[in-house]
Design goal:
single chain; about 325 residues; alpha/beta; 2 domains; 4-stranded parallel sheet; 3-stranded antiparallel sheet; about 50% helix; globular
């Protein structure tokens, strides 16, 4: 079961269920989220699913037609992607980046982006417990990391494990391979987290066995964490990297801001909210989208390249200032 084949069936089933009858508020919200998922994937450079669904089933047109019939509009796209930004050639560790941005934030005007309140609420929901390590999967959770870091550095691990990291350590397609067990579990009809975890972990370990450099890097990182419990913090969607970490270490638990509509029941106790339509608002804040780019992992420490555009730094400093204001 692949990402494309699962979603083609899922969208076909949802269209059959939703078309041709009056819908209530929750069902219309579901239609909007189905469209937003496709919009977000296209924004991130993955237009294949939306194109295939429209070509084979006119799914996008039909979903939009459902909304028009009810006098509703799709969720708007919030921000453009950061693909056009350039980055310095020099590498910087996360501690240095944090200190630099904090220094700039002291003189910055607080951002007026209201979504930062959601980031703050997410951080408070996460809490902070004893003998617990918090692994922030950057870039998407840099602001939550900064929020926690403002309360002290103990037990915080900023790990830049994203598509660039996976590509460099395991080659093209590693991200898709690690995600495939998620769709296989859904295809098998699994709808609760214990069964989902038990299904996915051995399959993810098998993928990692075929990616020895990636497996060794993740294993070494986890071995460097002395705490008895590890919380992997991510923005959301499928939770691929947190699942991979949990497949290698039983201490790892998962916390997401939100998740895809078809994973809500599985991740029910591990998500902050059901508002998938907010995911790109979370991920495309400048400090979490444009400020840094993965560069390397050396001696257990992550290094990044930082944005060359001064406007990115100014906006990121403003976001940080607003997040940390009482």
């Amino acid at each position: 079961m692949s990402f494309l084949s699962f979603n083609e069936k899922y969208y076909a089933d949802e269209l059959e269920r939703l078309e041709g009858r009056p819908l209530g508020r929750e069902e219309l919200l579901k239609v909007k989220r189905l469209l937003k998922l496709l919009d977000d994937l296209e924004e991130e450079g993955y237009p294949q699913l939306g194109a295939a669904l429209e070509r084979d089933r006119r799914a996008v047109s039909r979903l939009r037609g459902i909304l028009r019939a009810h006098g509703e509009e799709p969720f708007p796209a919030k921000r453009p992607p950061a693909a056009a930004f350039s980055y310095s050639g020099a590498e910087t560790d996360i501690d240095t980046l944090f200190a630099d941005l904090c220094a700039r934030a002291e003189w910055a005007e607080p951002s007026e982006d209201g979504f930062l309140l959601n980031i703050r609420d997410y951080c408070r929901w996460l809490g902070r417990q004893r003998d617990t390590a918090y692994v922030f999967l950057l870039r998407d959770t840099f602001l939550p990391y900064v929020y926690f870091r403002g309360q002290g550095p103990e037990g915080l691990y900023p790990w830049v494990i994203n598509r660039d990291f996976l590509r460099q350590t395991a080659g093209e397609g590693a991200d898709d391979a690690l995600r495939r067990p998620v769709y296989e579990a859904l295809e098998a009809g699994i709808c609760d987290f214990p069964a989902f975890s038990a299904f996915c972990k051995p399959r993810i370990r098998a993928v990692l066995d075929g990616c020895p450099v990636l497996k060794a890097a993740l294993t070494d990182l986890l071995r460097s964490v002395p705490e008895g419990r590890v919380v992997a913090v991510e923005s959301g969607y499928c939770g691929t990297v947190p699942l991979a970490l949990s497949a290698l270490d039983e201490r790892v638990d998962i916390r997401l801001y939100t998740t895809a509509p078809y994973l809500l029941e599985i991740y029910r106790d591990k998500i902050f909210c059901e508002n998938f339509e907010h995911l790109r608002s979370f991920e495309t804040l400048q400090s979490q989208d444009a400020l840094m780019q993965y560069a390397s992992l050396r001696d257990g420490k992550f290094y990044v390249r930082t944005a060359s555009d001064p406007h990115v730094w100014t906006t990121a400093a403003s976001e940080l200032r607003a997040l940390l204001e009482p």
